[in-house]
Amino acid sequence: MLAIERKNEILAKLRKEQRVLVSELSAHYGVTEETIRRDLDKLEREGLATKTYGGAILGSSTKVDLSYTIRNKTNVDAKRRIAEIMAGIIQDGDHIMLDDSSTSLYIAKQIREKRNITVITNSIEIIMELADVDGWNIMSTGGRLKPDSLALVGNQAEQMIRKYHVDMAVISCKGIDMQQGITDSSEFHSLTKQAMMASARRTILALDSSKFDKVSFIQIAGLDDVDCVVTDREPPQEWKDYFDALGLECRY
Prior knowledge:
about 250 residues, alpha/beta, seven-stranded parallel β-sheet, about 25% strand
């Protein structure tokens, strides 16, 4: 296993379990404890983990924006399940906006067999993924490149988005909370997602279950501003009751 693959798996375990032990990781991967400590050092420098005696806990920063390489290899099974659900929602001929999230990238991969779709996106990855699909209209927002996420952001991107009116905007986020709503790690990403929501007849929030009860740096919108939540597994009962109270559809 490559070091980057091991590091990504450790990050996924951290995100799921909130903590890891050096001794357990060393035995699991068949490497020295010093090797695992170096992996944890790298995660700590990136703001993704906080080292503790004998291990590490998930980083507590609310303004962490993971690189696209790490995001695309985190919670892969969950994103695939979400993409399968979205493939049943998006129909031939739809005009849609997809944000720059890794979840949207998995959705783009899943819907390639659809016909006559128009996609507006600020994601370089999604543009590349769909570049060879016949019969689709792929539109880039333009804007300033944010290298860590391969996203186009800024005023130019927002102005372009607001010129169009689409059937559906699909966005993701870093966390949802009953009090703080939908939050993200970057103001640039938040403003782009807000522009997409304003230009769509329907907004779908697609997020994996690890994002529930999490609050990140900046609010995107309230949960009452979206029309549907799509996630990979059944939410806790308190969340289902909350969605029902809002009249918000949830698919999983």
